[in-house]
Design brief:
- By secondary structure, this protein is of the alpha/beta class.
- Helix content is about 45%, strand content about 15%.
- It contains 14 helices and 12 strands.
- Strands 9-8-7-6-10-11-12 form a 7-stranded mixed beta sheet. The chain has a 5-stranded mixed beta sheet with strand order 1-2-4-3-5.
- Helix 1 packs parallel to helix 3 and helix 4 packs across helix 5.
- The chain is globular, with a radius of gyration of 21 Å.
- The two termini are about 25 Å apart.
C-alpha cells in the first residue's frame, strides 16, 4: 500500500505510474469511506498476462519480444484499452494504464472496464513486415482473453489503424468469421468509426473549452503550449487553433518550436506530414522542450507520456489551466504544488477520454452493422464530454477536493456501486 504523508502527498511515486495511480486511488477511496473488501478488489488487476513472442526478422534471425496484457476490471462491461509498442513498456506502466482506463470509462459513464497492453520493442527500428509478424503472433497468444464481449484493444503509443487491422484479421482467422468489434481504431473501410482518429484531441479541445467557460476566459486571449505532437497533441492543436486559441509552443522529445504570435498549426500539421518531424518548420523558432513547459502561457496541454510535470518543475509552471491529453503526465508530488498555486487541472481520466468514448461508439456501430455520420459522432462525443466535465467539477465543489480526486471519487463510486449490485465479492 502506498504511504501518504499527512498533507496527502505520496512518497516514492514520482517515477512509478502504478504507484502514482495507487496513491490517487487510496486517497479518493479514503474520502469515499470505501468498503475494505471493495478497496482490495479495486486495488488489484483481475488478470495479468505475459507472453514471449518469437519473430523472424528480415535478416533471418529470431528475436523474442516480451508482451503484456493487463485487465484491471470487467465489472461494468468488457475490458477496454490500447496496445503500445515501446522500449519503455514495463508491467507497472501497463498496470497503471489499465487502472486509469477503468476510471476513465467510469468517469464518462460508458459500459467498459479497463485494460492495457504493450510490447517491449523499438518500432522505429523494425520493418512493416517485422511489425506485422510480431502483432499477429501477439494477437494469437491473447486469443482466449480478447473479444467483443471480453476485452477490446485499441491503438496507443506507436500503434495505429494498420496494427488494429492486423489484430482484427488475426482474431477473425482464428474465429473463422469476420469479427470487426474485437478492436477499435480500425480503418473506416473495415469497421472503423468516422471521427475516431481525431477523437482524443477533440476531447482535449472540448475539455479546454469547458475549463475556459468555468473560469470566465476566452480562447482568443489564451496562449497554449502543447507537449507532444503525435496523434493526440497534433489534433488537439489543430482543433484548438480552429477555435481561436493561440498555440505559442509545441514541445517534442527532441526539441520544440515557439512563436509568441502563435504558430500556424495547419501549416505545421502539413509540414510534419511531409517531413516526418516538426523541426525545420520555418515559421517558428527552435526551443528547448523543458523550457516550453514553464514558459508564459495561460494553458498547458501535456499530450505525450507519463510523469512530465513533477515536484521538480510544478512550481515553475505559469499556466492557469492544465488539460491533460496524455495518461499520467502529472505526478502526485506535483499535484499538491499545482493545487496550492490554484492551477485549474482537467485530469487525464477526464480530458483524454474522447478516444475511448469514440471507441465505444465504434464498438456499438460494429455490433449494429450500422455506421454513423461524422457530425453525429462528434456531437455525441461533445455531449458526453461536457456532461462528464460538469459532473466532475460539481463533485469537486461538493466534496472540497481538486478535480483529479473528484474524478477518481466519481469513477470509484460508480465501479464500486456496480460490484455491490452484481455481488461480485459475495
Amino acid at each position: 500500500m502506498t504511504t501518504l504523508t499527512t498533507d496527502h502527498s505520496p512518497l516514492g511515486v514520482e517515477d512509478n505510474p502504478w504507484a502514482a495511480q495507487a496513491a490517487r486511488f487510496e486517497y479518493a477511496a479514503t474520502k469515499l469511506n470505501l468498503d475494505k473488501g471493495l478497496w482490495k478488489i479495486l486495488s488489484h488487476p483481475i488478470r495479468e498476462v505475459t507472453v514471449y513472442i518469437p519473430v523472424q526478422m528480415d535478416n533471418g534471425t529470431i528475436e523474442v519480444f516480451t508482451g503484456y496484457r493487463v485487465q484491471h476490471s470487467i465489472a461494468r462491461g468488457p475490458a477496454k484499452g490500447g496496445i503500445r509498442f515501446s522500449p519503455e513498456v514495463n508491467i507497472d506502466e501497463v498496470r497503471a494504464l489499465a487502472a486509469w482506463m477503468t476510471w476513465k470509462c467510469a468517469v464518462v459513464n460508458i459500459p467498459f472496464g479497463g485494460a492495457k497492453g504493450g510490447i517491449i520493442c523499438d518500432p522505429k527500428k523494425m520493418s512493416m513486415g517485422e511489425l506485422e509478424r510480431m502483432t499477429r503472433r501477439f494477437t494469437a497468444e491473447l486469443i482466449e482473453i480478447i473479444g467483443p464481449e471480453k476485452d477490446v484493444p485499441a491503438p496507443d503509443v506507436n500503434t495505429n489503424e494498420q496494427v488494429m487491422a492486423w489484430m482484427m484479421d488475426t482474431y477473425s482467422m482464428h474465429m473463422r468469421q469476420t469479427v470487426t468489434a474485437v478492436v477499435t481504431g480500425k480503418p473506416i473501410n473495415i469497421g472503423g468509426s468516422r471521427g475516431r482518429r481525431e477523437a482524443t484531441g477533440r476531447g482535449v479541445m472540448i475539455s479546454a473549452n469547458q475549463a475556459l467557460l468555468k473560469l470566465g476566459m476566452k480562447p482568443e486571449s489564451t496562449r497554449v503550449v502543447i507537449q507532444g505532437f503525435g496523434n493526440v497533441g497534433s489534433f488537439a492543436a489543430l482543433l484548438m487553433h480552429q477555435q481561436g486559441y493561440k498555440v505559442v509552443g509545441i514541445a517534442e522529445w527532441d526539441g520544440g518550436l515557439h512563436n509568441a504570435n502563435g504558430i500556424d498549426i495547419p501549416a505545421l500539421f502539413e509540414w510534419k506530414k511531409g517531413n516526418g518531424t516538426i523541426h525545420g518548420f520555418p515559421e517558428a523558432e527552435r526551443a528547448i522542450s523543458e523550457e516550453l513547459l514553464i514558459s508564459p502561457c495561460e494553458m498547458l496541454v501535456p499530450a505525450a507520456t507519463e510523469s512530465v510535470i513533477t515536484a521538480a518543475n510544478a512550481d515553475k509552471i505559469r499556466a492557469k489551466v492544465i488539460v491533460e491529453g496524455a495518461n499520467g503526465p502529472t505526478t502526485p508530488g506535483a499535484d499538491d504544488i499545482l493545487n496550492d498555486n490554484k492551477v485549474f487541472v482537467v485530469p487525464d481520466i477526464l480530458a483524454n477520454a474522447g478516444g475511448v468514448t469514440t471507441s465505444y461508439f465504434e464498438w456499438v456501430q460494429d455490433r449494429q452493422g450500422y455506421f454513423w455520420k461524422e457530425a453525429f459522432v462528434n456531437s455525441e462525443l461533445e455531449h458526453i464530454m461536457v456532461e462528464s466535465f460538469n459532473e466532475v467539477v460539481r463533485y469537486a465543489e461538493t466534496h472540497k477536493v481538486n478535480n483529479r480526486i473528484a474524478a477518481y471519487m466519481l469513477a470509484i463510486d460508480r465501479v464500486a456501486y456496480t460490484i455491490r449490485q452484481r455481488g461480485l465479492y459475495a
